Amino acid sequence: MPRHCVLPSPLTAITRTVTVAAGRFAPGHLGELTAVVPFELVDAVLAETRTVQQRLRDLPSRVGVYFLLAMCLFPEVGYRLVWDKLTAGLSGMPVVCPSAKALRDLRRRIGSAPVRALFEVLAGLLARPTTPGVRFGPYRTVSFDGCSSLRVPDSERNRAWLGRTSHHGYPTLELMTLVETGTRALVGAVFGP
After folding, report:
1. Coil, strand, or helix at residue 182?
2. What per-residue string of b and e applies to 19-51 under the rule 16 or more CB within 10 Å gives b?
3. Residue 184 CB: number of other CB atoms within 10 A?
4. Cα–Cα dist 140/129, whole Å
5. Single pTM value for the model
6. Residues 6+ apart with CB under 8 A from 183
7. Cβ-contact 80, 107 below 8 angstroms
8. The dihedral formed by the CA atoms of 149, 155, 159 and 161, expressed in degrees to the nearest 10
């Protein structure tokens, strides 16, 4: 008669129920932004770029990516006000209240690689071929925009890369974008001197 030996599993699962905000205001979300940038996509980009936090933190990498995106939505305010806008939908929940230095460190720890990878995934043409205003005959129409420029700090590193301009002393970072006409979908973007 054959003998079967069943050993207990060396792992045990412990489950618990945690109550959090529902829908778009769940932790790690930024309102309507998560309809375009779901947290699963952010987690995949963080794993691909190897920028997932190495230890459990109050400000994990996923939150850092949403913080960087929120900084782009609210460029005129400081770190703390951007954080307040990011977490406004989480009232009544215990939310970390980081200092401006902690948010700056979070931004530096994340770096630019996840945001670049996220852009490469999300950028592209949106219109269908039958959408009015996106074609001229058999050709899809796009527009270039290269008039956006930003002054950056006058440091050795920035001067070596960007040089100096003749009309002011600070190095200037230029942005060139390619946009689909009709939908205004961003197809590509390049920064440079």
Report:
1. coil
2. eeeeeebeeebbeeebeebebebbbebbeebeb
3. 9
4. 8
5. 0.69
6. 125, 126, 127, 131, 134
7. no
8. -80
Give phi and psi for 137, each to the nearest 5: 65, -130
Which two structure tokens, joined as six digits, stand for 57?
Answer: 């933190």
Tokens 């994340």 belong to which residue? 110
> How many CB atoms within 10 Å of residue 188?
14
Which DSSP category does 141 fall into?
P
Rounded CA Rg of the chain: 23
Which two three-digit tokens encode residue 66? 């949403």
Main-chain dihedrals φ then ψ at residue 35, nearest 5 degrees: -70, -30
Residue 175's DSSP bridge partners are 148, 191
> How far is Cα 14 from Cα 11, in angstroms, rounded to an integer?
10
Give pLDDT tens digits for 33-88: 777 788 888 889 999 999 888 877 778 888 888 888 888 888 888 888 888 888 77
DSSP state of 8: P
Strands (E), 47-171: 135-136, 139-140, 142-151
Within 8 A by CB and 6+ apart from 90, the residues are: 21, 25, 27
Is the distance from CB of 41 to CB of 28 less than 8 angstroms? no
